[in-house]
Amino acid sequence: MQEAADWFARLSSEPHNLAQQHAWQQWLDRSDSHRQAWRYVERVSQRFAPLQDDRETASRTLQALHHTPTSRRQVLRTLSVISGGLLLGGLAWRHAALTEQLLAWQAGYRTSTGEILERTLADGSRIWLNSATALDVALSTSQRSLRLYEGEVLIATGSDPRPFIVHTAQGSLSPLGTRFSVRERAARTQLNVYEGAVQVRCAASHHTRVAKAGEGLSFDSHGTTPPEPVQPGRESWSKGILLAQDMPLPQFIEELADYRRGHLGLDPGLAHLRVMGTFPLHDTDQVLAMLEGVLPIRMEQTFPGWTTVKPR
């Protein structure tokens, strides 16, 4: 955590130092614990939006730093205030953010960036873990429960009289003989139902809502969005495929970035472009090459691990 705070201070005080950016990227890619620590410093500092993955870290952080340069002393003072606040409110911090991160690191099922994992549980249920996902499974005599800490999981529940419950930080989901996916990102949970139905219960408000087959919704601890039609091919990632049916290029790049280490960004001037086709998630370089062949775009690599999609 201290290393992450130090890097935050360096990048803030010298936002145009490319050598330092390169060194920071190498540190970030060295281990999952570095990426987790960086995400945490980003969140508690409240300077930037929570990061979805290390690929977005560079773009959001450095864009913000270019526009709001800050002295190293100011940043360290800010982090000191944050640390002091954490000490004063230590109990809440320990039982919230820290506990959540520690549980994620020690989860029984984990995938790294770009990895997709399929498993069959003892009750006959099948689960597919998407890239950078962490979860625990507990099967007791009275119920079957799954705790999703981060990432996305696709679930096909097995035939069993015990209730099946999925827990996230925002609430719980109770399926009824169904196939559905749950995604935890940026303090929200996204539900997509492919078969059957799922009831959502928000953690704080206890508000409930049911989504049926073909519907999806998102929720936080206080409420849900209205159900909307599930995007076609939304579960194709479980087969190692990214299916795009007239998908906006920004959304496509954001999805692809989940399976790629380093930074993958998009020039805002390309936001009007759309993508059609099926793309292999195991080789993101191949996907980018395929896009270059059909769209007026090119890949610009500032240094290893830092790729930006630019107009041709």
Mean pLDDT: 82
- SSE order in H/E notation? HHHHHHEEEEEEEEEEEEHEEHEE
The CATH C-level name of the largest domain is Mainly Beta
Provide the number of structural domains. 3
CATH architecture of the largest domain: Sandwich
Structural class by secondary-structure content: alpha+beta
Distance between the termini: 40 Å
DSSP helix fraction = 25-40%
Write the layout of secondary structure elements.
Elements: H1 2-13, H2 18-29, H3 32-45, H4 54-67, H5 72-88, H6 90-105, E1 109-110, E2 117-120, E3 126-129, E4 134-139, E5 144-156, E6 164-168, E7 171-185, E8 188-202, E9 208-212, E10 215-219, E11 228-229, E12 241-248, H7 249-257, E13 263-266, E14 274-280, H8 284-294, E15 297-303, E16 306-311
Parallel strand pairs: 5-6, 13-16
Antiparallel strand pairs: 1-4, 2-3, 3-5, 4-5, 5-7, 6-7, 7-8, 8-9, 8-10, 10-11, 12-14, 15-16
Helix pairs in contact: 1-3, 1-5, 5-6
